[in-house]
Specification:
Number of strands: 7
Radius of gyration: 15 Å
Largest sheet: 4 strands, mixed
Order of helices and strands: EEEEHEEEH
CATH topology: Nucleoside Triphosphate Pyrophosphohydrolase
CATH class: Alpha Beta
CATH architecture: Alpha-Beta Complex
Strand order of the largest sheet: 4-1-6-5
Shape: globular
Strand content: 25-35%
Helix content: 10-25%
Length: 148
């Protein structure tokens, strides 16, 4: 069940949080999702790998850095293709998250931050509880990858 989004507010602006995410796609056409570890905000929910964009950092640079830190893989800029984005108002901040598709990387995907990882068909992504901001990213992936 979707939680209703907060109405737009002009009197008290929300802090804008910029994050970036990747839909890593394996040779079978499955997408990698990661489960947020216990003790973190939104623990146990599944999400696309990625993270915060540091000040002065381009989204692609941030994603390359985050994928190396979280998964131990090397991604080249030319292998990132923007697909869609999410814009979601949480209670205390507004999240803006571009989603890039990546089909090529160097190294083996390894959980480096205590997270569980799973390769799933795009059509099955809705079977995994995700943060509200991630849900709008699923239809474009299904359209791109087909029923699986």
């Amino acid at each position: 069940m979707r939680r209703p989004q907060a109405p737009l507010r002009k009197d008290s602006p929300l802090k804008l949080l910029l994050v970036v995410a990747a839909a890593l796609i394996d040779s079978d056409g499955r997408v990698l999702i990661a489960q947020r570890p216990k003790g973190k905000q939104l623990a146990d929910l599944w999400e696309f790998p990625g993270g915060k964009i540091d000040a002065g950092e381009r989204p692609e640079e941030a994603l390359i850095r985050e994928l190396a830190e979280e998964l131990g893989i090397v991604v080249k800029l030319a292998c990132l293709a923007p697909l869609t984005f999410a814009s979601h108002a949480y209670d205390d901040f507004h999240l803006l998250m571009p989603l890039y598709v990546c089909r090529r990387w160097e190294g083996f995907v390894t959980p480096r931050e205590g997270q569980a990882l799973k390769w799933v068909w795009a059509k099955d992504l809705r079977n995994y509880p995700m943060p509200p901001a991630d849900a709008p990213l699923i239809p474009p992936l299904i359209e791109l990858l087909g029923p699986g």
